[in-house]
Task: structure prediction
Amino acid sequence: MSLSPDEVKSIAFLARLSIQEENIEQYSQDLSNIFGLVEQMNAANVDQIEPMAHPQDAMQRLRDDVVTEENQREKLMSNAPLTEAGLFLVPKVLD
Amino acid sequence: MITKSLTELSTSLKAGDFSSVELTQFYLDRIAKYDGELNSFITVTEEQALAGAKAADEQIAAGTAGALTGIPMAHKDLFCTDGVRTSCASKMLGNFIAPYNATVVEKLNAAGMPMLGKTNMDEFAMGSSNENSYYGAVKNPWDLERVPGGSSGGSAVAVAARLAPVATGTDTGGSIRQPASLTGITGIKPTYGRVSRFGMIAYASSLDQGGIFGTSASDCAMVLETMSGFDPKDSTSVERDVPNMSASLNDSIKGLKIGLPKEFFGEGLDSSVAEVVNDAIEEYKKLGAEIVEISLPNTHLAIPSYYVIAPAEASSNLSRFDGVRYGYRCEAPVDLTDMYMRSRGEGFGTEVKRRIMTGTYALSAGYYDAYYLKAQKIRRLISDDFKKAFEKVDVIMGPVAPETAFKLGEKTDDPISMYLADIYTLSLNLAGLTGMSVPAGFSKNNKMPVGLQIIGNYFEEAKLLNVAHQYQQVTDWHKQAPSAYTGGE
Result:
């Protein structure tokens, strides 16, 4: 299995990762090798096997729909790169 | 001081032989003296440590102290610590001040353990050598040219060089057991769901589990029983009572059935590692254990399925780092997409990007069944292998890693060779079982430490610690420390 440089570029875009042009070839080789390793899964016949998502096959626990967090807006926002008037600032989205 | 067990430290603190402030300062001084070349800490929290120690001394004076009160420790830098930088060894979180405590941090704070600092690791816990840290590689105290293992390499080295009595770690594919093995200390990865993941920065949520490093099984038992337990804030935490793990350490292991999986002793295992592991098993025979040959026939599928499941979950978990609410943001973004792409491209290191892209591809439209779903099915095959084995045996033993600590830079250009080093540890995480590494000797080739892996059934941490403790009563491998950092003290 091999992933071409163009495929790597499209995966990087899906993952929203900028990759330097000069590194694309290396990622293409690395990802091809990783999926080469992953292909060893094909040797296993798992048609009749149930997938396992949780080691104890536990169900997702639900809690009551009530507010339990205290409001600490300023503390939480102090980690943001850019804020104004209690809002997160991002580059213009709409013209 | 550095040869005392936690129980001895606790007794001395309560007897007034020394205060927690003195003990904590002693370790801070050791960190200042030795960590320059080891690089096991990303952040040393001297102020918090001494404040915690002072509070512990007041509790001791008031007679309200518990078993761990006043004993300093360190946290892997992926546990959120309120008001303290929590970087996950990434440029992405270089300025991130955690706004709350992880449950594990909360529990050990409540037990009165002063925090010495936050330890180095592979970025976002992705790696097996601790070379993937934005803050520089960690060095193995037994040989500075060698890696300490990863991803919890900083915590392992802090304990191995006696810069902290105990330290937390996390294990997604071997990240506690492998560095414990490579640095000659004791480390335990609990059953999935035993220790809360709340406030542990997520890598692969269905595999991640917090645990502890110490110099002995009895030290690990004291801390693990304190940090374990159901947590409503972690939706995968398991509602189950935590036993007193220290109470059963001295139980006899006569008649213990030890399973040896033939797949763990085949091709690829370094002969000097095999020799140490076999010697340890001989020691168990002398203690009255019975050896049973077993098979875990799907072991060879662990690496391929792990390298689908873990990257897939990572690509989803790490999508939260968008340069908006916290973390790194690139300079002068021209639009939103540019901001996402460059913030993430510049903020994450190479291995993290590799795994995000692997996961993104595996989860992309049309590939789900071929990769993630198939890997989840193989996960059950691997888990069923262990279930069958545990019908016949009490614990399973084998090597932790196929070789001892390798040289810095030896595998950095070849990610696959690094992945293959996790062959004996990954399958446990896929099954969700508990496992530990116990120092069992040194390779005759390069004098580097070798760990014995002990694998237990679900929620049998107390049994593992008992089995390890009995071995440590008749051997002294766990007491050996790198002399460059412990000579004359």
The CA atoms of residues 15 and 474 of chain B lie 29 Å apart. Chain B is about 40% helix and 10% strand. The first helix of chain B runs from residue 6 to 15. Chain B has two domains: 6-251+458-486, 300-375.
